[in-house]
Amino acid sequence: MSDRQVQLDVAKPLGPLTWPMGLTFLRLLLLPVFLWLLLADVPYRDAPAPSHRHLAIAIFAIMAITDKLDGYLARKLNQASKLGAMLDPVADKLLVAASLVLLSFESIAGPGYAIPIPVVITVYAKDVVLTTGAIALLITTGRVSIVPRLAGKLSMVIQSALVLATLLAADLKSAGVGFLHHLLAGLQWVTVGIAVMATVDYVIQGWRQFQSRHSSSVLRPSENPD
Questions:
Q1: What average pLDDT values come out for the chain (226 residues) when binned by 10 residues?
Q2: Which of 69, 118, 152, 222 has its CA 20 to 30 A from that of 124?
Q3: What is the pTM of this model?
């Protein structure tokens, strides 16, 4: 969902608070509310669970809209900042990753609609590889640039679509959508495939950054023989 470049330098400040960053903080504040609404629908013993699903879907929609809005305002008002660029993808990943985990339980997703564990593991593996690589680059070179890539953007969009389709599964079934299970299965396979592609792409980009900066550090002393 995020389309802003993240570039970190250990020696530079992250910048002031802005309106776009405020929307990012709003998403972070709404995240526990959204997760609570999902968990509140889990039956307790024999007591029927209250229905908070539609409210959870509304919160999810608000978070998705504010994600697009803060990016638009950052460009329109020229208020892009390092802190905002760093927190924006963090908010997105927390929302989607936490949703995927919760919706892997049938008690939350609904019987027959739970997201398979291999899908969740693949998504988490991508984020672990990206985070580990970014930290390694920051430690070894003092700087890391995470540029949004097509595969990464598609991966986040498909993951969000999978979460939304799973949340709406009961309503879609009631509406008589006959291809519901095929839709969910298709989204799950596409989620895995694009997550793998995004992981490979980010590994290649990270390796190129390392080689470029390593080569620069090796060549720099030769420019000043004294």
A1: 50 59 88 91 62 88 87 78 74 89 91 92 91 86 78 90 90 74 91 94 88 67 48
A2: 69
A3: 0.80
